[in-house]
Each structure stands twice: as structure tokens, then as C-alpha cells.
């Protein structure tokens, strides 16, 4: 566990060299303005320098960390965050020790110095621009009221997809100081000003709040029953679960579609096969009918050929018979001229007609 760093100032430095010296100076000028001639405004680096030296409002203090209107503050001390399982983790970031701010996470870190703000000075802080360009966020903008005593702890958000490494003692934020408008509580007014009837009363910083000097105490006060963590990991996990569920649903539909496609293909295939079989049967039946018809036609043609041969043979025989008849007729005519035939015989011959049995001639 780290303690507050001691001041790096030399023995002849105008700044407090121990925390006890800083506390003593603060008590002397807590409600008494050491430089009433400095007007209420955002303090420049010279004003900050003088007020720190006189009031001990920053300990330890390093004048090399001053800018025109701000002061650079280091990361050092207790850090509280939640791991991926939502369990609270506590680390002490000592000088030079690395701390990894995980992607999509939030950590509550502690600043190095002890602040003792007089009743007439307030402060604000902002993240260093380097960290801003890294995509980190700080709970910036909150005003630290006059009268605050203790170490500040701040929420540091990493909303990026990268892990970032911090080291104890490295600069983290810039602080600016503002002097309040005059009040007789810390400034001796002249007689003319004192004669003005003022009804407003200055409300000092609650003393009990100065007891909350530890980051865990601040978190316990903010939510005593739950760990404070980033909602992004849960959202990412929900998105992953939804994506997995969607993928599973798609897979189920894909399988169902595939099975349905196979069934449909089987039905279509069976229908096609059945249609093909029916067509094949019809073709086969048609072929059978065609072959039978061809056979009958062939048989008919064959029989017809035989009949034609018979007819031709008969016609030939008839022709032969007719020729013989003519020959006979021609022969009989000649016989009549040479030797007369009796009347009875002539009548008999004339009564013979073609087509009758020639044996009667």
C-alpha cells in the first residue's frame, strides 16, 4: 500500500516540505485571504504558485507541473474496479507500477496530492488531452468546493476496444483554480463597505465530507450494496448472446430448410419417377399395341398375298379354259362346213352356252 509522496522541494523552498507543514499553513489561511489584492477569477500560474506556498493547498507540489492556468496532477494510490465476473478488485498503484485499464471498463483511480482548499478557492479538473485522443473519458466538470480537504478519486472510462497501460506517478489530469468573489469571512472590509447591510451568509464546506478521503468510502456512499461497473461488457455479452441465439435460430431454420428441401426433392423425385414409370408403361403398352397391329397387318398382308396368288392362279386357269373353249369353238365350226350336221345336232350345239360343263358337247 502506498502512502502520499513526500515533497521534492529543497529545504529553502517556499513550499511545505511535509504534510504537517502544509496542514499548519492551511489552518493559518483557511478563512483568511493571504492575497486579497488578487481579484476573483481563474487563477494564473503565478497566483497558483503564491497561494500554494502560502496556504499549503497542494501537497506535494511540483512547480514544474504548472501551466499558464492549470496544474498537472499524477496518478498514484488506490484503484477500485470490477473484473469480468463483476467482482470488486482493489489495487494500489505505487510509483512506477503498471495498471491496465481494460477495454470497455471503468476504474476509480486516486490522484497523488492532498488538496486543502481555502474558503475562497475552488477547483475543476479535466483529463489530459493525450488520454482524450486515446478515446478515454473522465467524469470531468465537477466542481470541488472551497474547504475540501483530502485526496481526489475520479472515474476513468475506457470505451474503446483497446487496453491502456498507466503507471503510478505519471500525469493524468489538469486542474484549474478559481477564486471566489469577496466575502467578509476571509477579507477585512473598509468601513464604507462594512456599513452595507448584508443579509447573505457564507456556507462553509461540510466538515464531515472531509472524512471521505478514500476512494472506497466514496463508492460505498454512492452505492453501498452494489459494485459500480461499466454496462458495456454486459451489453456486449447480451449482443453476443443475441447473436448466438440468432445464429442458432438460423442454423435450425437452415437444417429445417435442408430437411424440407430434401423431403421436397424426394417427393418431386418420386413424382418424377412415378410419372416416368407411368410414361414408360404407356410407351411399353403403346409399343405392344403397335407391334400387335404390325403383326396383324403383316399377317393380313401375308394372307392377302396368298389370296392374290390364288386369284392370279385362278385367273390363269380361267384364261386357259377360255382359250381352250375358243379353240374348241373354232374347231367345231370347221367341222360343220366340211360335213353337215344333222338338225338335231345343230340345235344341240346352239343350246350350249359358255360356262357350262364342256363335257356335254
Q: What is the straight-line distance between the termini?
A: 166 Å
Strand content: 15-25%
- The structural class is alpha+beta
Helix content: 40-55%
* Molecular shape: rod-shaped
Number of E-type strands? 12
Q: Which stretches are low in confidence, meaning pLDDT under 50 for 5 or more residues running?
A: 189-196, 343-361
Average pLDDT across residues?
A: 79
Contiguous helical run count: 7
Radius of gyration: 64 Å
Taking the sheet with the most strands, its summary is: 7 strands, antiparallel
The helix/strand order is HHEEEEEEEHEEEEEHHHH
InterPro entries: dUTPase-like_sf (IPR036157)
Protein name: Deoxycytidine triphosphate deaminase
GO molecular function: dCTP deaminase activity
Amino acid at each position: 500500500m502506498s502512502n502520499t509522496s513526500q515533497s521534492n522541494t529543497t529545504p529553502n523552498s517556499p513550499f511545505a516540505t511535509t504534510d504537517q507543514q502544509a496542514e499548519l499553513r492551511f489552518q493559518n489561511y483557511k478563512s483568511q485571504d493571504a492575497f486579497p489584492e488578487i481579484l476573483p477569477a481563474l487563477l494564473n500560474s503565478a497566483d497558483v504558485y503564491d497561494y500554494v506556498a502560502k496556504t499549503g493547498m497542494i501537497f506535494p507540489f511540483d512547480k514544474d507541473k504548472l501551466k499558464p492556468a492549470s496544474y498537472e496532477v499524477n496518478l498514484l494510490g488506490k484503484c477500485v474496479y470490477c473484473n469480468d465476473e463483476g467482482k470488486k478488485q482493489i489495487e494500489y498503484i505505487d510509483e512506477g507500477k503498471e495498471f491496465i485499464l481494460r477495454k470497455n471498463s471503468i476504474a476509480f483511480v486516486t490522484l497523488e496530492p492532498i488538496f486543502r482548499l481555502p474558503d475562497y478557492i475552488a477547483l475543476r479538473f479535466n483529463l489530459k488531452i493525450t488520454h482524450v485522443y486515446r478515446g478515454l473519458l473522465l467524469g470531468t466538470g465537477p466542481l470541488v468546493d472551497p474547504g475540501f480537504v483530502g485526496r481526489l478519486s475520479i472515474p476513468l472510462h475506457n470505451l474503446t476496444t483497446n487496453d491502456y497501460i498507466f503507471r503510478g506517478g505519471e500525469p493524468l489530469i489538469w486542474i484549474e483554480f478559481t477564486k471566489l468573489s469577496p466575502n467578509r469571512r476571509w477579507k477585512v472590509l473598509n468601513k464604507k463597505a462594512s456599513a452595507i447591510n448584508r443579509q447573505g451568509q457564507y456556507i462553509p464546506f461540510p466538515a464531515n465530507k472531509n472524512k471521505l478521503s478514500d476512494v472506497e468510502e466514496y463508492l460505498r456512499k454512492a452505492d453501498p450494496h452494489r459494485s459500480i461497473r461499466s454496462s458495456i461488457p454486459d451489453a456486449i455479452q447480451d449482443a453476443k448472446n443475441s447473436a448466438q441465439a440468432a445464429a442458432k435460430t438460423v442454423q435450425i431454420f437452415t437444417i429445417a430448410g435442408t430437411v424440407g428441401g430434401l423431403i421436397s426433392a424426394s417427393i418431386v423425385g418420386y413424382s418424377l419417377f412415378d410419372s416416368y414409370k407411368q410414361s414408360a408403361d404407356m410407351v411399353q403398352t403403346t409399343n405392344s399395341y403397335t407391334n400387335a397391329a404390325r403383326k396383324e397387318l403383316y399377317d393380313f398382308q401375308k394372307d392377302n398375298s396368298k389370296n392374290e396368288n390364288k386369284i392370279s392362279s385362278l385367273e390363269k386357269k380361267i384364261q386357259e379354259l377360255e382359250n381352250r373353249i375358243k379353240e374348241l369353238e373354232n374347231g367345231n365350226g370347221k367341222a360343220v362346213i366340211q360335213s353337215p350336221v344333222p338338225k338335231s345336232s345343230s340345235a344341240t350345239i346352239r343350246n350350249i352356252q359358255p360356262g357350262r360343263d364342256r363335257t356335254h358337247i
